[in-house]
Design a protein that fits this description.
Belongs to the RRF family. With about 190 residues, the protein is α+β, with helices and mostly antiparallel strands. The protein contains four helices and six strands; from the N terminus they run H-E-E-E-E-H-E-E-H-H. Helix 1 packs antiparallel against helix 3 and helix 1 packs parallel to helix 4.
Length: about 190
C-alpha cells in the first residue's frame, strides 16, 4: 500500500542536477585571469540572418595561457564576430589578424577580482533559488499525495528525503562557489 503513494525523487534529483550543471556552465564563463575557451561560449554572432553560437562560425583555441583565439571560417563574418565579442561585455578587446581574432586576457586587478567574486555569488544564489523551487514542487506533490490518502508516516519519510536531497544540492552549490571564488582570488 505504501508504494501507491510516492513521489518521483529521480525527477527531482535530475532537475537539481540540471541546476548544478547550469551553475557550472555560468562559472566557466567567468574569467579568472587564465585563458579558457568557455569565456566565449555564450557569445552569439549575427551570422546568415540568425543568432549563431560563436563556436559554430569558427574554431576557438587557447594557444597560450593568456590568449584565446577564434579562427573564423567565413571571411565575411570576421567583422560580425569581432563586434559580437566587443558587445558581449566580457571586457576583452579583440584583435583581428587575418582570419583569426585574438583575445588577449589581461591580468585581473583586485577590484575586478572582487566584482567577479560577487558575480559568482549571484550565480550561486540563483542556483540555490532554483533548488528551493524544485524542493517546493516536491513538497507540493507530497501535499497532494497526503490529501489523496498517503499515511502520516510515509509523508514524513518522503518529506525528509526531499529535504535531504535539497540540503545535499545546496551543499554542492556552496562548495562549487567556494572553489570558484578561491580560483578568482588567486593571483
Amino acid at each position: 500500500m505504501a508504494d501507491d503513494h510516492q513521489i518521483d525523487t529521480d525527477d527531482l534529483q535530475r532537475r537539481m542536477d540540471g541546476a548544478m550543471a547550469a551553475l557550472r556552465q555560468e562559472f566557466a564563463s567567468l574569467r579568472t585571469g587564465r585563458a579558457s575557451g568557455s569565456i566565449v561560449e555564450p557569445i552569439m554572432v549575427d551570422a546568415y540572418g540568425q543568432q549563431t553560437p560563436i563556436n559554430q562560425v569558427g574554431t576557438v583555441n587557447v594557444p597560450e595561457p593568456r590568449m584565446v583565439t577564434v579562427t573564423v571560417w567565413d571571411k565575411q563574418l570576421i567583422g560580425k564576430v569581432e563586434r559580437a565579442i566587443r558587445e558581449s561585455g566580457i571586457g576583452i578587446n579583440p584583435v583581428i589578424d587575418g582570419m583569426t581574432i585574438r583575445l588577449p586576457i589581461p591580468e585581473l586587478n583586485e577590484e575586478r577580482r572582487a566584482q567577479l567574486s560577487k558575480v559568482a555569488g549571484t550565480y550561486a544564489e540563483n542556483a540555490r533559488v532554483a533548488i528551493r523551487n524544485i524542493r517546493r514542487d516536491g513538497m507540493d506533490r507530497l501535499k497532494k499525495e497526503k490529501a489523496a490518502g498517503m499515511s502520516e508516516d510515509d509523508h514524513k519519510v518522503w518529506t525528509a528525503e526531499v529535504q535531504e536531497m535539497t540540503d545535499a544540492a545546496i551543499k554542492r552549490i556552496d562548495e562549487a562557489l567556494a572553489t570558484k571564488q578561491e580560483e578568482i582570488m588567486q593571483v
